[in-house]
Amino acid sequence: MALSDIDLDVRQGEFVCFLGPSGCGKTTLLRIIAGLEVQTAGSVRQAGRDISRLPPAQRDYGIVFQSYALFPNLSVFDNVAYGLVNKRVGRKAIDARVAELLTLVGLPDADAKYPSQLSGGQQQRIALARALATSPGLLLLDEPLSALDAIVRVHLRQEIRALQQRLGVTTIMVTHDQEEALSMADRIVVMNQGAIEQVGSALEIYREPASPFVADFVGKVNVLTGSAQDGRLRVGSKLLECGGCARAGTFKAYLRPEDIIARPIAAHDSNVFDSRIEKIEFLGSYCLVRVSTDGLGQPLTVYLSLNFLSEQNLEVGSELRLRILPERLRLFDG
Amino acid sequence: MAEIALSIRQRTEPSDRVGHAGLLLVSLLLLLFLAAPLGAVLLQSFEDRKRDFVGLENFVAYLHTPALTQSLWNSVWVAGFVTLATVPAAFLFAYALTRSCMPLKGVFRTIALTPLLAPSLLAAISFIYWFGNQGVLKSVMQAFGIDSIYGAPGIIVSEMFAVFPHALMILVTALSLADARLYEAADALGTGAARKFFTITLPGAKYGLISAALVTFTLVITDFGIPKVIGGNFDVLATDVFKLVIGQQDFQRGAVVAMFLLAPALVTFLVDRAVQKKQTSMLTARAVPYAPKPARGFDLAMTAYCVLVAALMLAVFGMALYASFVKFWPYDLSFSLRHYAFGLVDAEVNVAFFNSLKLALGTAIGGTAVVFIGAYLVEKLRGMDWLRPAVQLLALLPMAVPGLVLGLGYIFFFNAPGNPLHALYHTMTLLVLCTIVHFYTTGHLTALTALKALDAEFEAVSASLKVPFYRTFWRVTLPICTPALVDISRYFFINAMTTISAVVFLYSPDTKVASIAILNLDEAGEPGAAAAMAVLIAATSLVVCILYLGLGRLIDLRTQSWRHLK
Known about the structure:
The complex is a heterodimer. Chain A is α+β, with helices and mostly antiparallel strands.
């Protein structure tokens, strides 16, 4: 994957996620930082040092791969101690450091076992311990959780985040899983087709997507097509109040399902319309509800809580008044 | 960041330079001992005796020499005949092994593979005892209208015996790759047995059949030992090369004939590579392995066929064994160790046998080391991106080069006046290097398969931990790959023990090996001693195979215990 115009600063102690669909270049970027691949142009600097042309062994990082890449013929102890042996520290110091790391990742008694005797989640913790053993200034995680099943994944992502905060180690993680990125990262770098689309906190990425791609890729979204008219947005036969409608032209307005509310709606509120429930998708405590609208000319998807639905006796075919929050409409030229 | 940079080059990690040096050494080895000799053959075929370039003149002259074109035709039709006869026979045998519930499969398989343990000409010697001038069954053969075994008939039956296991191994692999779900779907649709065979089994084994046919054809057309021993006045390309080069010192025409031998081998190699890719992609990860169900009549028929083939194999082997212990064929059939005790010693065969062991050990140890390190560096080394594909290509090339052509190249290249490596000529070192190169590809592919099964990120992890690559090679890669190393080493040993084609050009009285001694004994009219030598080689190969089996088990216990942990 070819990268272009990558300009990114990662702060000391920060947890950054590279997020994007497969083939967007996020892994390539990580491998360039690691020196496993070589950029054709530009420079990479770490802690004030230009590492652009340094081979991996002369850079300062620990890395964890999706495949764990544990050495299967070495015990857990030997795996974790693999990088320590080279540092010519004493046997006692190595023993102590390995014990400390295994405790840190929650597997204090695993030292004599072999990787094949551990579950996937346990193997990934050992890989993490091995990467952290030499106290690197940077931790690189290449889709570390993708090979694990759903429950272990959720559990381990909290642990990795807690561990990272405790150690304060600068961390870059590559993932295609937006939930993972949103829940773990201090900042998220959303990438697409070899370029950075947006850099920001989870909330910024979600609430203020910088491009249609980001809005689409992160979370669910309704897309309304309309044109500016008298500082408002005309969609279908409706005129909607919105935040950024001063410009003229046609727009695509992006709107999260939770930005369409069923209550509270006051009598004088704008952007209110009638709708009919077409489909209810049960997701647990809330439901994804598809409604057809009068006037807007297209169906919308909204979140409604299970309680609300049962309180109001709503089912497929029920009528419902909804309101679009004007400040949440994000317009992109279209 | 808009600076325009000519592609940035990473600095080389000092420890990686060790690997770069290693790769350079391997490529130098392949250049000197493979590419240069082949180039020498190619060059000679376009030159006259004064070493002036004459274009295609030698080829034109060749095609106008009736005696030589007759050999070309002989080679082609004999190889074609053997292919047409052997491939179906081996297919049926492979079918019985993979698709029936016949008993004693292991025994049948082992018997069918025994020809691999001895030089191919053991079959020729044995058939001479059966059907030759003083053969036991000569009259039976003549009743069938075949006047003499010497010539095409002898070559054909001997080659069938010798190449059977090669075709069998390919076809067993092809037939093992069946997906049971296809047969279940066919059963669910009420498909008959014959229709299942022609619509599922045969298409599934198609690539295996193509591959087996090509390999058989190439092995037969490039084999030297059998036509030399049982060919009589029936000339073929392989014997022509030898006569032209060793007998008449006509290097140019020898080189032209070598080109004719190289052609089918090259075609086979290219088609085989293409076919292999298709074959592996046919079987998806979700396929369910086929398990045959008992069927009385079918299983019985298959057993009967395999018993017949095994009996024929044992008859060939048994005759050589028997003849080697007979006092004076056919007049005094009493038991005697004469051929072993005196025949072999007279012919200085003890020296030859010892040389064979030296060659085999040297090849097994040296070859395994070079091949594995070469494959490792091609697959895992950081940097030298320009050289690695070239080495990979050179490593695959030997598969496409018949031993005779390689041996010829060695004469042309190393015997050339002015070559500083001339001192190697006639030495055991050169024999070892030639044999390593001759059998390089199979070892290389075995090593590559083992290395590709490892996690691709071991080297990246090591680098991030500041551990030099060679330490990871020693502590992780090598221990995990030991089973493959044992396989490669055994393959080298057995082939070095039994090979004739390349070394026949390169030995000196001091470095004569056992397989060559068989040829010499046979020429000297000592068939009993020749048989004894062949039996000795086969016995050695067998013992070595058993030793390797033990070694494999031992190494498995020592280095692979992590595989079996629960």
